[in-house]
Amino acid sequence: MVLAIDRRIGKHAILLAMSNEQEVSSLTIPVQWKSCIGKVGSMDSQKVVAAIETAAKREGIIKTEGYRETHALYHAIMDALSGVTRGQVQLGAVMRTVGLRFAVVRGNPYEDVEEGDWIAVALYGTIGAPVRGSEHETIGLGINHI
């Protein structure tokens, strides 16, 4: 099992999440991979999860029926949220809010085709008290096999 240097799925997800529209158009990801980007702002972590899951299903990143792919995406989202929230996946309950760009990337980052698809979720944006100007940058990444 060799991780191909130009197929680092997490790096591609982070770059997509951190890039503006002009920068996104210049990024190159492997042709056979699928990706989507979006934005979400909330004081409710459930809304963040729902926004990412909805976008991934709408864009055909994961299947709408069945559980396995949704489950893999959920774990990648939770890992990314854990990074954003420093291990406490809570927002409004502890008086903080987020404004995030997200990217979901699906593909095989390995040279061996039998390794199958993996999914990466990157979150980049701001977190802080629900008072404008009290936020700071944050980033999180989750990767899971499908």
TrEMBL record:
Keywords: Activator, Histidine metabolism, RNA-binding, Transcription, Transcription regulation. The keyword NAD does not apply. Gene3D superfamilies: Hut operon regulatory protein HutP. It comes from the Bacteria. HAMAP family: HutP. Belongs to the HutP family. Homohexamer. Antiterminator that binds to cis-acting regulatory sequences on the mRNA in the presence of histidine, thereby suppressing transcription termination and activating the hut operon for histidine utilization. NCBIfam families: PRK03065.1. This is Hut operon positive regulatory protein. It comes from Sutcliffiella rhizosphaerae. The lineage of its organism: Bacteria, Bacillati, Bacillota, Bacilli, Bacillales. The gene is hutP.
